Amino acid sequence: MFKIGDYIVHGRNGVCKVVDITHIDISGADKNQLYYTLVPMKSEESKIFYPVDSNRVVMRAVVSEKEAKDIVSGIKDIEPMWIDNDRQREEKYKEAISSCDCQQLICIIKTLYARNEERIAQGKRITYVDDRYLKEAQQNLHDEFSIALGIEPSEVEKYITEYIKNA
Question: DSSP character for 111?
Answer without folding.
Answer: H
